[in-house]
Amino acid sequence: MAKYMDVHHSMKGITEEQLREAHNADLAIEKDEQVHFEMAWADPESGRVYCLSDAPSAEAVQRIHERAGHKADEIHPVPLMVQ
Amino acid sequence: MAKYMDVHHSMKGITEEQLREAHNADLAIEKDEQVHFEMAWADPESGRVYCLSDAPSAEAVQRIHERAGHKADEIHPVPLMVQ
């Protein structure tokens, strides 16, 4: 398992409720791929959404996002983290 | 105060120690601009580094990053967050 940051580029105008619904759609099926979506942040103005996940691979992250109806535009492993 | 996600594109090969040093350089001066860098994630392979901060403006985030020696390539407000 590893951490991934994926980015959606085209979610302009997304509301808090839509972000919650999209995240819940991921959470509902994430176990099928041993993925866990931990947090997501959205900028309604630019349409960027960033999702932090714990997953076996980038492909597993994308399969969940695709099935939930929101394919990611970028997925990067982020093995390093500081706090 | 608002949340920001900034992205660095060109930190290929960054190590855990270098990420820690870069983050500490931000933390050392962030109070000058009422910014707080909460977390940072790095992908040494693509060179992407994502930083989550709490700040009065994107310009304040950039001023700290510039003074610390690592200007951000993108800075997006992220007013929406789910967990």
Automatic annotation (TrEMBL), chains A, B:
Gene3D superfamilies associated with the record: ORF SCO4226, nickel-binding ferredoxin-like monomer
Q: Name one Pfam family in it.
A: SCO4226-like
User: Which NCBIfam families does this UniProt record tie to the protein?
Assistant: Ni_bind_SCO4226
Q: What is this protein called?
A: SCO4226 family nickel-binding protein
